[in-house]
Amino acid sequence: MSGLYSVDLRVEIIPDTAFVGSLIELQVSVENLQSTEVPVFNEIEGSKEEFTVVDKVLTPSSISYFLQFWKVGLIIIPSISVDIKKNNNDVIRIQTSKISVNILSNISTSSNEIRSIKPMKELKLNSTLKLGLLIVLIIAGLVAGGYLWNSKTNLNDLNDLKGSFKISALNESIKKIEDLPLPSKINSETAENYYLKLSEICRLFFNEIFYIKATEMTSRELAEHFAFIGIESELVNSWNKVSQMADKAKYANYIPPIDQFNADKEGYIKLITSFNKVKTES
């Protein structure tokens, strides 16, 4: 990029040679980020008949898409867009060029021509044992073929399950909240620690599903980001409400009633469940 911003994208494919059915890592890195800039990486668009996105791994300045290819030849991956959020006000969108990946066949041959069909070989079955072995081999081949076909079908369906890689993040976050014990001795310090832990679990969940540095953002910055990406105002207000309770415990030494502790745990669970539903339906 040129002008006021010097942010740039670097794309790397690992390994540089891929075969049908194998996995490659497509890494997109944002370079020259300023300390106030946060990248938001978008989904890869493309035909699931050619490839599927099996997994993603996010870092503060990069993302690795793990792709599995199903067709031989030159596969064109559409441009990947990245939104840069700066100081919660300015948003810049940059994108990669179209990415070409040459997918090779697993069959080794000296030419690209289709091999001619070999003539059938006459089998002389002169014993019951040989006939039985042949039947067993045929059945085993059919079972193996069915297994391989189902494996491919399941991987294709994986791309249709939007946010399926986030389901584990939701379940893990809910379990952490449910396992968080009430303070054995309730005072301003233990109340503060309790609500800080609830807030941390929630923010780590936001890190996972929205690819943002939620743990480094203020409650207000998160609310502004949610509004910017189109989260409905009612859900944003729910986030503001639970955040205010954590802020009161941290900065005003507020000690809520004993029943409020459990009620707020349920509130956090409902909140992240609602955010997960919005994200998976988007």
What this model shows, in words?
- It is built from six helices and ten strands.
- The protein is an alpha+beta fold.
- The chain has two domains: 97 residues, Immunoglobulin-like (Sandwich); 116 residues, Four Helix Bundle (Hemerythrin (Met), subunit A) (Up-down Bundle).
- The chain has a four-stranded antiparallel sheet. A three-stranded mixed sheet has the order 2-10-7, with no helix packed on it. It has a three-stranded antiparallel sheet with strand order 4-8-9, with no helix packed on it.
- About 5% of the residues have low confidence.
Quick structural gist:
With 282 residues, the protein is α+β, with helices and mostly antiparallel strands.
Present the secondary structure layout:
Elements lengths: L7 E7 L3 E2 L3 E9 L5 E5 L9 E9 L2 E8 L3 E5 L3 E6 L3 E6 L3 E6 L23 H33 L3 H16 L8 H23 L8 H10 L4 H19 L6 H24 L1
Parallel strand pairs: 2-10
Antiparallel strand pairs: 1-3, 3-6, 4-8, 5-6, 7-10, 8-9
Helix pairs in contact: 2-3, 2-6, 3-5, 3-6, 4-5, 5-6
